[in-house]
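Report of the visiting student (M.T.), summer placement. My assignment was to run the structure pipeline on a short list of targets and document each run. The first record concerns Extracellular solute-binding protein family 5.
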Amino acid sequence: MKKFFVLFMVLAAFLAFAEVKNPDTIIRLNMAGEPDTFDPHFAYDTASGEVLSEVYECLIAYDGSSVTKMVPRLATEVPNLENGLIKDEGKTYVFPIRKGVKFHNGAELKPEDVEYSFERGLLFDPAGGPMWMLWEAMFEVYSLEEFVEKVTGMSYSDMIDSNTGEPLPEYKDKLIKIYTDYIDPAIEVDGDSVVFHLTRPFGPFLSILCGYANWSMVLNKEWSIAQGCWDGKADTWWRYHDLPKEQSPLYAKTNGTGPFRVVEWDRAQQKVILERFDGYWRGPAKVKQVIIWNVGEWSTMKAMLEKGDADIAAVPTIYLPQIEGTPGIVVEKNLPYISITSLHFNWNVRPDSKYIGSGKLDGEGIPPDFFSDEHVRRAFAYVINYDAVIKDVLRGQGKRIPADLPSSLLGYNANLPMFDFSIAKATEEFKKAWNGEVWKKGFKLILLYNTGNETRRTVAEMIKTYVEMINPKFKIEVRGEQWPTYLTSYKNGYLPAFIIGWVADYPDPHNFIQTYYHSAGTYGFAQGDNFKKFVSTPTPELGGKSCNQIIEEAATATDPALRQKLYEQVQAFAIKYVLGVPLYEAQTQSVRRSWVKGWFPNPMRGGQDYYYLWKEE
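After the run finished, the structure tokens were exported:
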């Protein structure tokens, strides 16, 4: 009888353990931060992108785990030469638009919605946002401002009345023509299709439009205008250009064609609740609700995952040993991920930054141009124990790379030099910095990491420990900030140095090399005027060309061997002058309850694809 009772209790415990909690809801936890914005044309972070990828859709998508094979989505065909939808030697792309697709508000998708979405994105073009990819691909520039100056010969800011925000009378017609003569003809509706006209062939164009690319997601024109977005007119577009994040009408509102719609963004709990859209054109998702929740710290995440109160968790690699082997939890490691994490420097910090102390080289702060001295940058490169980061923090799920280019992409060369961890070499460089003044006077600065990102926190504390060990006059405060604050601070030039990752927007070397090393790149742009001048200035070691020019040549070259050579040239230049310090190329992992079914990896995806998931033990 006693044995039977024990057996019964074990069986009861097993059945209780096996019971699927909240079968119609997927709860996904992370620690790195909440979304920055819901505006697809502003969002440029994985937390925002994970939500937007469920709410909106692109014209085409990746096929499962592939990053090279594409399938139709809101378009009915993927353009190629064989089906005749790529024309004019690669300068014209035709997308037949799918019929019968509904937005969340019930409106039916029309080709005009696609045209409006791309035109609105190009005109909005927020500073530091993702729209540079479309500007580069379609117009050979990196921003609306650059295009205005290219066409008119005048600075955009000089044509706008700073008091009213309206064009000065003598320039209004010129600005109207920016839309009527250039942008509008470049994206046009032709019957049931939308046609894109590029100024020259650009190989990665389809990748820029594909999959998880929120900058290429399709809005409902009528609804967007009703919310206060660009009204579609040629003589008003400047009123909607480069608005601050919170002033975007789509900052916290959504209306897409995707499988889920946002029903709540709880800023206090940093929780986004998605509800299934039963009118979704591919059929309803298998679960009714998705909750994406930034819990902020490990103990809460661990407890919820173990109890089955969470289904998926973005577990920092450093904590994996605490969860591996737990019954009911699946841990898949060493998954491919086209991503790198680096330390980069701002060569001209905003003078009003609260992270540079006194703003002088007096032992109580740093001058705004502190990192424009290459000896300072090189010293910081030597104080990172790269091998320890990979072994102890990443638990082996990463590798060293010479420059800011993943090993899976064209242009990579493992034989390029890499920085060693060396206190002695760091000391030598600090003694040379600013003609010896850094060593004599010391410095103080604040190094930020985004709260919840334990890997970046560890790297920041490592830098602090070794730098302060070298000279007691050197002081670094490590401080955590919420992801939206961190993002805003680096974009606006307030951070003296920043540890940041880059997940491929599209699987091509240009997406990394241009991002980090070109003066108009997303991170290059944030590294200050001295950096921009340095990479824009021709130099004999690059054959009389600038770093910018070499990057631009590599982007449009059709010969892979030539592209390889040019990208190696840029990386060697970047390493020599410490344009950035690559910390590691990470692999990733999936941690989820065993009852989560339908999951598959994709190296281009920052979060999950909830449409395919369901729960079943």
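Residues 2-18 form the longest helix (17 residues). The chain has three domains: 20-33+258-333+591-604, 57-247, 339-586. I thank the supervising group for their guidance throughout the placement.
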